[in-house]
């Protein structure tokens, strides 16, 4: 039998590989669907590419590649049998097969047992060889099978428990010397002794100093005074104040530079008057819980409709998306997008074509991953999709919670990028905004247009209908804070939607406005109107802001959002009779004489290093500090956030005086980019994906030194017939499919009102809309909390809460964060 198997495998031996370091083994999810080893047909892993395929897709891979040998993995899940004493059968009877295969279920794994099965399958005859079969298989095949079985799954995430197991007892815990300085820490009302910050506070266990923690790039943390104190005193151990409970506390050792355990923490805290048994865990808003109080119904309960017997629904359009660990922002966005017919038609209606034309590695193909075919009652786990769409992004590639609105724009970017030359479903969101800027001194005006994908509505607290109640609460809160008492029950601001819309349309001051009529800086105001209305309107309520300590905070407010919306009165009108336009002149570029010939501009290196410690590229930090005039790390951080999607974000700082030749401010391409040099293909692809001709895009980039925003401005101020022959000759070069498109990268661009030939594609129509979906956020910040979405389907509101999909009894429309409207027909 051994000889027979060896002879059988001889023709396939050249195609069987042993996974090397760096090879990813996809043994938990199909590359085309959401099939897994727990699916009815199991999962087939190619022994050459290590890609996984469900039973419906493995034949396609065999026909396309000719790879014949696959490992079939099947996990059988059974409910545990319990004895009279309640004892259960061990959790896993065959632990060697899927050693590193993550549990892919949404119920309690301790209540189930798993029997894992593996075998080699040879196509096209489906000849099966059970595993393990060490004695009968050739050595190479045995080694390859063992390596695949024991390789970690490609998207296996680290469990939190593994981090907890690594925490060690501090070497300072036993011999910590505490100063007898009479310091006593109150049970509440803490603030940093140096900056009066009231969040992220750490107590030094040697001298009782209460100081703030380190400032992080996401805006959280503090000003680093606890670390400064350690450098001054060498007192090593600190404890985070809002983590102290009867069960323990979070302790950090500055000297050991890691989180540590302190077995004597109760004794060390009692030195400063803190009784751990009396301490209570803080709630998410930083306030202590009080078991005797009856708090208001929380935002979490209202949005998730807790306490109601919601009816679960299943079937097409009602598939949940499992939370992969702080990935609810991704799930809610995908649920809403795939409720739109244009996305369904592009990625579901073309499913067979997408699969047939997918590359050899479908895990790297956007269309394949976003169109995952399998619909499961227990929900799907989009690990491959998350890995693909977040690749290279500093935030979405992490396991931290993210802003659903930012992720929505990121997905639109990817859809734009991957729809060049084909139907683009994100066209339904694109619209034009007309901006009217007026010089307050000369009263002259300038009208420009820009592309946008959503409107951001301010939330004017001063317009709240319960303003008196809010003022009374604020007075009580300050009084409680001064007297170190528990804060009063929070009051939620109730703001009319009309007030938000009014705030959106009001004129706003233009900072550093340069009047071309005066040839000098002047006061200017700007108003915005719709130059076109999209087919689907995205409305984001600006619920998040930064506090004085630069910590992102969420405004506690409710807005009565209407089901029907008429925005026709906000239609742009263009230049009116009697209005005089500002001259079409550009402000002069002023360069200090002493910078010419300088190779190293004056930059605050301390600020650069502070930003670099947050993980940003060094050159990007240098540019951020330079372009914000050395005004500190906070201003530079804002610059980084605003420019991190740009292609040259991490490239070295080049000043105009250092370039040869420098960027020209004239309309001629002469002196901008050398005519013999082609602009970057990714920049060309971005412009062509917006509908502009390739040769026109090339000329615009060359005329503006490859600056995308200036190139867009150039395109809309220069008709296509003015293109030079030198640029037109380059139109036959092939575009690069790897270009990346940013939905907001052109938001300040000037667009021509004539959109028939060169303008971006928009689906204009009447401005009457009906609400069909909204995404809600629970928590105090976009960096934490949870997202759910409600979608109106077949006349019923449905709530999507990760893998749970139920009919909604009371959709909380007033607590939404991002709202989605579809256009009503004109009839």
UniProtKB/TrEMBL annotation:
Residues 168-276 form the UBP-type domain. It catalyses: Thiol-dependent hydrolysis of ester, thioester, amide, peptide and isopeptide bonds formed by the C-terminal Gly of ubiquitin (a 76-residue protein attached to proteins as an intracellular targeting signal). Keywords: Autophagy, Hydrolase, Metal-binding, Protease, Repeat, Thiol protease, Ubl conjugation pathway, Zinc, Zinc-finger. Residues 319-824 form the USP domain. Residues 742-752 have a biased composition (Polar residues). Residues 659-679, 742-763 are annotated as: Disordered. Residues 602-643, 678-718 form the UBA domain. SUPFAM superfamilies: Cysteine proteinases, RING/U-box, UBA-like. Residues 753-763 have a biased composition (Basic and acidic residues). GO terms for biological process: autophagy; protein deubiquitination; proteolysis. The active site is at 328 (nucleophile), 786 (proton acceptor). SMART domains: UBA (SM00165), ZnF_UBP (SM00290). This is Ubiquitin carboxyl-terminal hydrolase. It comes from Amphiprion percula (Orange clownfish).
